[in-house]
Known about the structure:
The protein is about 35% helix and about 25% strand. The chain has nine helices and twelve strands. The protein is of the alpha/beta class. It is globular, with a radius of gyration of 20 Å. It has a domain at about 5-90 and about 165-255: P-loop containing nucleotide triphosphate hydrolases (Rossmann fold, 3-Layer(aba) Sandwich). Adenosine-5'-diphosphate binds next to strand 2 and helix 1.
Amino acid sequence: MSQDLKLSMRGLVKRFGGVTALDAVDFEVRRGEVMALVGDNGAGKSTLIKTLAGAHQPDGGRIELDGREVHFATPQDAWSRGVATIFQELALAGKMTVADNIFLGREIIRPVAGVPFLDRRAMQRRSRELLDELDVEIPDIQIWVEYLSGGQRQGVAIARALNIDADLIVMDEPTAALAVAEVRKVLGFIKTLRAQGKSVILISHNIQDVFEVADRITVLRRGRNAGLVDTAAATPEDVVGLITGASVARRTADATP
Ligand SMILES: Nc1ncnc2c1ncn2[C@@H]1O[C@H](COP(=O)(O)OP(=O)(O)O)[C@@H](O)[C@H]1O
Ligand SMILES: [Mg+2]
């Protein structure tokens, strides 16, 4: 992505049978920005980012990177264009080491006497660098991922995205089900990514977390845009009102004589 821009989605439509999960949704993220995506269960958040990630194909609308329309046929396609999505289900292999997970699908292969072999040393060295850059504390990267805490696993998933040099990292509920100290860590990773000039999309139910790290907040409600606010210019109550529709209802009530 270029310096100024950005990802933008315009008029995005996604239907599942009779359900319209996304009804002409607009969404954008600038370079070096943390954009939060919030809304009640079923609002369409995961559908939006799965469409961005190439896991779903939209029924309408367009996706642009730096003003050029893109079509991501698969998640691999999106990754190859620098859009790395960390799904709610994380997609790490529990019975593989930290380093092997970071290099999953893009192992460093070196021919020795004409025979290809996995360059584990190189992969371990690079994994350590990536984890250190993010300040993820994992003393032994030779252990299986299933022995890590939830926060460490998020760190590994982000390191994996950085390993492909992603410009935009999308995280679906990365702090759900984490202990408080672990949440702090993951919010720290997000701030580090922004400091590195990356763009981040953060889906979260926790409005406090959102206010701590996001520059702007996009609100979805029942598959539609319900608001776009600058975090610095809004209160958590404003955002909750947009999520529930209460602020719209109140305005309507005020207008009634
Ligand atoms: N694969 C699917 N098949 C059918 N309906 C789906 C599918 N994924 C999501 N939906 C529906 O689309 C709507 C939005 O869901 P989702 O994007 O998961 O919401 P959120 O992530 O905001 O909770 C819901 O009504 C949900 O039931
Ligand atoms: Mg969801």
